[in-house]
Amino acid sequence: MSLFRLLLLRSINRDPPKPAASLLLTHFFHNVALNPTSENPIQGPPTPPPPPPQRSYAFTSAEEAAAERRRRKRRLRIEPPIHALRASAPSAPPTRDPNAPRLPDSTSALVGHRLNLHNRVQSLIRASDLDAASLLARSSVFSSTRPTVFTCNAIIAAMYRNKRFNEG
């Protein structure tokens, strides 16, 4: 019986401890105080830890598993999987429907001349020159450098912050 159970039973029963149990408890504490690594007289000798679980393999030996891997590799070289036999991606991109709605620009669109335009517009906005910023963006629509959605949104947000709702 473990020490915990003994103390639990003692608190439940509320009977005075029996001399045999008391003697056993005293012997246990004496033993633990003198030699904590010795056997617990109440619990008996410690049980050895269980051995690690044996791993079961699908093959009887490592050599057999290696041979199967080599066989599988050879088979894939000789006959490739079905998905690898499909026709590769078409060389020309599919023609785009002119009536389909355009997807918004990604942040990768802000490069080169478009990035320069965006930075000029941002600096005009920071200088509170919203008229020049919107004029620059409007005039760039007709040039080879078209403004991105980020540039247009920056102008719209700046006008909204300055309560210029009827312009734009």
TrEMBL record:
Q: Which stretches does UniProt call biased (Pro residues)? A: 43-54
Residue ranges, annotated region (Disordered)? 36-107
User: Protein name, please?
Assistant: Uncharacterized protein
Organism per entry: Gossypium mustelinum
